[in-house]
């Protein structure tokens, strides 16, 4: 083989490994940025009420999203015929759920919040069956049962009981997960032609404004009393967790299959539990570790329908 061909093959191999390394690094960035989001929210609401906190986060993120959209020359506005869908996304994906998450974290640990929210892909599966007529396989139903049974045991072992404020925090976070799952399915049905940047940019700006103004009216926050720690957390949430994590995820959409990329929702709660335990000074109990592992394993099963994969492999083998 000519020396030039050998050098060419070596360069291709090196480029392939570099591409894989970059992809792995981006995947880790997304897991870390989304895994630390929950701790950031926890710190932010220490001295900023939940409505105001959610609004400030989005108001910080909006100019950066706007610049990113302009650089990529993506449209800012939704198509005129989809104004109603724009309102739906602004309210059910950004405004209400993020207020609920901020409210919930006033009463629930950041690690438990992430574990609760990791149920969101399961709600996507359920709503896809209801609205898109997609099939739920037996193995996925088993995974759902395992996941939610483990989630119940986690809540029980964490000492949250009916009548305590903690249960309202849990309910708020689960409602946020349900709303996100519902919004994802309706988006697949009605907004698949809208670019990812268009989908995020203006809704984030409008939601940030609505949440912040609502916070000023209903919460009357004393912004002068906000601690440096909370401001830092808000800046982190707006710049790193929202924009940085989004850009990394945006790039990964073109590099990985949706199934592999969806495992971000299984991995980031692990980081959230670890960072939350460190910040809040609470050791991870054996019960929490065990039930969390079972929960994430159950939700992972929902992403890999065994029957569908076996059927596909059988058809390929016969073909």
Automatic annotation (TrEMBL):
The EamA domain, residue ranges: 24-155, 168-301
Membrane topology: Multi-pass membrane protein
Organism this protein belongs to: Pseudomonas indica
Name of the protein described by the UniProt record: Permease of the drug/metabolite transporter (DMT) superfamily
Signal peptide feature range: none
Transmembrane residue ranges: 21-41, 53-71, 83-101, 107-127, 136-155, 167-187, 199-218, 230-252, 259-276, 288-306
Cited SUPFAM superfamilies: Multidrug resistance efflux transporter EmrE
Pfam entry (one): EamA
UniProt KW S-adenosyl-L-methionine keyword: no
PANTHER family reported in the protein's UniProt record: INNER MEMBRANE TRANSPORTER (PTHR32322), PROTEIN PAGO (PTHR32322:SF14)
Localization of this protein: Membrane
GO CC list: membrane
UniProt keyword terms in alphabetical order: Membrane, Transmembrane, Transmembrane helix
């Amino acid at each position: 083989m000519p020396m030039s061909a050998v050098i060419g093959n070596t360069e291709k191999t090196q480029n392939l490994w570099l591409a894989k390394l970059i992809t792995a690094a981006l995947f880790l960035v997304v897991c870390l940025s989304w895994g630390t989001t929950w701790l950031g929210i926890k710190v932010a609401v220490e001295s900023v009420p939940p409505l105001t906190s959610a609004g400030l986060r989005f108001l910080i993120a909006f100019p950066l999203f706007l610049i990113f959209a302009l650089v990529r020359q993506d449209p800012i506005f939704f198509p005129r015929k989809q104004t109603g869908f724009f309102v739906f996304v602004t309210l059910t994906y950004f405004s209400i759920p993020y207020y609920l998450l901020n409210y919930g974290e006033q009463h629930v640990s950041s690690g438990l919040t992430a574990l609760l929210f990791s149920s969101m892909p399961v709600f996507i599966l359920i709503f896809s069956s209801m609205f898109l007529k997609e099939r739920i396989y037996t193995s996925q139903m088993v995974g759902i049962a395992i996941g939610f049974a483990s989630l119940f045991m986690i809540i029980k072992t964490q000492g949250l009981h009916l009548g305590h404020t903690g249960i309202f925090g849990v309910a708020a976070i689960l409602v946020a997960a349900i709303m996100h799952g519902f919004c994802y399915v309706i988006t697949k049905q009605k907004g698949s032609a809208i670019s990812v940047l268009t989908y995020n940019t203006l809704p984030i700006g409008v939601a940030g404004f609505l949440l912040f103004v609502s916070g000023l009216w209903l919460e009357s926050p004393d912004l002068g009393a906000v601690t440096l720690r909370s401001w830092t957390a808000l800046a982190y949430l707006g710049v790193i967790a929202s924009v940085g994590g989004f850009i990394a995820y945006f790039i990964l959409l073109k590099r990985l299959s949706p199934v592999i990329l969806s495992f971000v929702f299984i991995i980031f709660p692990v980081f959230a539990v670890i960072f939350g335990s460190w910040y809040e000074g609470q050791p991870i109990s054996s019960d929490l570790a065990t039930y969390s592992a079972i929960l994430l394993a159950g939700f992972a099963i929902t992403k890999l329908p065994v029957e569908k994969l076996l059927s596909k492999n059988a058809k390929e083998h016969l073909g």
